[in-house]
Amino acid sequence: MGPFLLRRLAALIPTFFGITLISFAVLHLAPGQPVGTMTDLNVKVSMEARQRRIAEFHLDQPLHKQYGLWLKKTLIGDFGDSWNDGRPVLEKIGEAIPITVGINLLALAGILGLGIPIGLFGAARENSGWDHLLTGGVLIGFALPTFWIALLALDFFGVRLGWVPVSGLNSLEADRFGFLAFWGDRLHHLLLPVGVTIFGGLAGISRYVRSQAAQTLRQDYIRTARAKGLPESRVLFRHAFRNALLPLITILGLSIPGLIGGSVILETIFAIPGMGRLFFDAVFMRDQPVVMGILILGAILTLLGNLLADIAYAAADPRIRYGGGS
Amino acid sequence: MSRPPRSGFRSLRPLFLPPLLLLLSSAGPVSAGTAPIGGPIPGDLLVTALIGEPATLVPVLAADSPSHEICALVFNGLVRYGRGLMLEGDLAQRWEIEEEGRLIRFYLKRGVLWQDGAPFTAEDVLFTYRQYVNPNVPSPYGGDFKSVTSVTAPDPYTVEVRYAEPFAPALDSWAKWIMPKHLLEGQDLLTTPFKSRPVGTGPFRLKEWRRGQRITLTANPTHHAGRPYLNGIVFRIIPDQSTIFLELQAGGIDSGSLTPLQYARMTGTRHFEAAFRKYHYPSLGYTYLGTNLRDPRFADHRVRQAINLAIDKQEIIDGVLFGLGEISTGPFPKKSWAFDPEVQPAAFDPKRAGELLTEAGWIDGDGDGIREKDGRPFRFTILTNQGNLARKLAAQIIVRRLREVGISAKIRFLEWATFIDEYINKRRFEAVVLGWGLSWDPDPYDIWHSSKQGPGEFNFIGYANPEADRLIEAGRREMNREKRAEIYRRLHRLLYNDQPVCFLYVADGLPVLSRRFRDIELSPFGGISELLQWYVPETEQKYRWVP
Which ipTM value was assigned to this complex? Predict the structure, then answer.
């Protein structure tokens, strides 16, 4: 395990630099000057003002020099300031990440909590009426565009019934509430965005679990288990499902970088200041420090997620052993 | 689709101020709603939507519209626009213009306090001016002070500004917000904490900025014109237009600006009408079809006339804006003194358009429905930016109408930064659908003067007419309002005859406001000063807590 880990870690370094180099280059290939969106077609903005911005951001330097300058700062942990509002990139990301991660964790819990039982149920009662109903339900959630579901849900639950607030993270007077009331208010506000995310995400997990479990149930050892007279519940829970759920580890590992990625569409509709909007706005404003900051974070988390998934696999499945002789 | 009644309310919207704060206008003051016995009382909050997060609240750097919305309430200029597009004193009590416009002397109001209690003096004005012209401060607005030769303060309440030559828009440039010297001197304006904790002289002070969520302003008790009745204004950051509309219906916000579709089709419910007052008025800006005048096809005056006659502007207004707009005839707002009311939009006349094209040598020789000249068919591409539904639909209607007179146009949508940098700035376009927002002063130098065709400058269509240049230059030098107006009216007529661009429409601003707000005095430009008078009768006050 030790040498394996070291080799994997070493391989991460060139991958990481490759990612930053490609991201940086692609960002510069995109047409449009970063200084532009703030000042373009504003009659009051003079040419001199624009030239000053270009010099200030080193945009008049050749690309490799710009990358060098950027890399030097980034390696010592200085992600720079946003070109749009001059605030430190880390501060901006630091504000958005807890919100997005919070929502994503709630949504992930919901998706697993509902998706796995739905999948297992479908496998155990394959092709029953309930199976078809649930499958149909989750596929509808998957197929409908999120923005449309979100707006319909807002109109119905938020405006017509008035059960939930329409947008934002808290009520205006939430600061006067106590601790519990404050977070209760926050959850109340997040009910719809999280609910819509869960509805859209159920299909993936539940269908995956269902097919895995169904396959497992056709294995010889299950037949053996049944043949020796074990009760059906024991067959399902003890023998079949444990094995069927193993591949979920990979999926969870892969979803780690996804935790910091917010949905632009949902965040815009529900007025949530999360990572999706931060990134989206930064791209449109060609706000290079913010874009690169988020990309790096994403790259690190993706690489770590993969690594963790590999390690978890090794720990969970005794047949999988890395390195050494097999 | 019937046109909503105009009810006499009209107003122009300044370049950056939100529709909300400048709700409306009329010839004279109009009191909406009835004042209860006892008159206005303090209390309640106005909760409204902000489409994005402000970038910086340092006035000299504020370039985006959310920043301007907040700054407008926190800061004051020396002068401001009052009724009838006339400049009136704000931080200045009065002013004198001498030496044929080469000297402006401002007499400042005494007893004005910054929101931290420090007195406002001429030193603050001098400091602010130095920031605008400081080459190390990347202010977008330094250009306005280019012709200033000196700014001095003979005493703490007098400011003298000297110009190299008479500059008519000079007074207008002193409507810029004044910044406090004692808080900003020696600071880097790009990184100063002031940019998120501004201190001004205005009617509201910034209480809290919850990033990405809301900005809360509270009434400034030491405001020189008196404390506003409202306890505060909460700007909730809501980037989506549909959500703003849903929040209005759910009571989450008290005012907001609607799209033409929402305004025309979705606000007719009894519930909505009972809760909100709807307004509409021409916005300060226009949308146009511009062609590249360096292209010999569009350099021909007859071709430009033909395009103007071939496009039915009313059809665009009815179809795209649901009737909520007006035909544009030139670069000045209709309510401006620079606007010539005698300029009437040419009637839709495809027959005459065809004749003009034939006259210009464009004839459909091969019978495919597209005119040719020298064997080359008349085809071109119209570019416009993504994400602007009205421009997109207008372009589609234009394409169909041009096809009817034998011109084949295609449309291409481009992301904004790409559009400007790769196509506009590099002059790689045949035609564009774009809009210009206008400022208060009518000086059109940057957009129409032939010298403004350099890289990144705004006469990118390449308009060059010596007569227009002469009028534009004369308008800048003329200090007499009547004479200046006459110059601009001639320019207006000249531009409409010349058709450097095809002027399409002026869209309406479409704000709605909760009916519980009273004494909404509606003046052509006000807004900020008017907001001071807004109040809510005690029985209708909704937010009883003070932020």
Answer: 0.82
